[in-house]
Amino acid sequence: MIQEQITAIEARIEFLKQDTTKIISPWAQPTGCTPYNHGPYFRKLEIKRLKARLKTLQKKLAKC
């Protein structure tokens, strides 16, 4: 079960590294602001969170 979670997390990290989806704030245009692409920042945050979870799972797997 832990090994399945580890492979799923690794697959998600690989997907995020290749993803180029633009995430633009919906209120940027109506207020006159130029749209800013938040995608890279959100991907960076998710990768950081996933790597922390991956480390925790690997430690659990090593104890078993």
Could you give the topology of this structure?
Layout: H1 2-18, H2 39-63
Q: How much helix is in the residues?
A: 55-70%
**Stretches with pLDDT under 50, minimum 5 residues:** none
Distance between the termini: 12 Å
Tell me the total number of β-strands.
0
- Secondary structure class reads mainly alpha
Indicate the overall shape. elongated
For the biggest sheet, the summary is: none
Q: What do the pLDDT scores average to?
A: 91
The radius of gyration computed from the alpha-carbon positions, rounded to a whole number of angstroms, is 16 Å
Strand content: under 5%
The SSE order reads HH
- Helix count, per DSSP? 2
Model description:
The protein is 66% helix and 0% strand. The protein is mainly alpha-helical and 64 residues long. Helix 1 packs antiparallel against helix 2. The protein is elongated, with a radius of gyration of 16 Å.
Task: Compose a concise summary of this entry.
This protein has 64 residues and is mostly helical. It has helices at residues 2-18, 39-63. Helices cover 66% and strands 0% of the residues.
What descriptors fit this protein?
single chain, elongated, 64 residues, 2 helices
